[in-house]
Amino acid sequence: MTRARAWLLAAAALAAGGCPDSEQSFPGLGGGAAQAGRVDRVDLHAAPTAMNWDDRPGPDGIATQVYLYRVTNGKVSTVPVAGALEFVLYDGNVSQPEMAGRSPWRTWRFAPGDVAQYAARNMIGGHYAVPLRWGPRSPRGPLVTLMVRYEPRQGKPLSSKPMGVRVGQ
Q1: pTM for the complete prediction?
Q2: What is the number of other CB atoms lying within 10 angstroms of the CB of residue 93?
Q3: Fewer CB in 10 Å around end: N or C, the chain?
Q4: What whole-number distance in Å separates Cα of residue 90 and Cα of residue 143?
Q5: Residue 137's beta-bridge partner residues?
Q6: In sequence order, what are the residues at sequence separation of 6 or more whose Cβ sits closer than 8 angstroms to the Cβ of residue 93?
Q7: Which fold has domain 3-166?
Q8: SS3 of 9, please?
Q9: What is the C-alpha to C-alpha distance for residues 133 and 136, in angstroms, rounded to an integer?
């Protein structure tokens, strides 16, 4: 079975209300720890606009969800982190090819033990719901570009597709 077909089957299971990894459990969510290991894909989901988490006006950061997927025998499962997650934020609308020649505005790096506190579960499966706070200094423009890189202990790093998040009006 091709990977594209496996992803389509996972999407169909989600649309039907199923969870592609219902037999697994993430660390800290009860039921034991899922097997970490090979990751075939990293997906980043974020709120479309920056969040205001305090009582002062203005955005404070971005609410994210990171999903790590493995495909085994045509079955798609979310898997826990067995390496580091690094979030990279660029000021403005930056395409993936442009990222190589441009310095990020901000990065957040989480070791496997540090990201476990953000473990969560929803209909898609186990994931990490990580609030990225940027502190008192906000991005300059009305739009930022965010991506996440997964760096396994062994093997090649994987990156999500970059996504735009609106910061201001």
Answers
A1: 0.80
A2: 13
A3: C
A4: 9
A5: none
A6: 143, 145, 164
A7: Immunoglobulin-like (2.60.40)
A8: helix
A9: 9
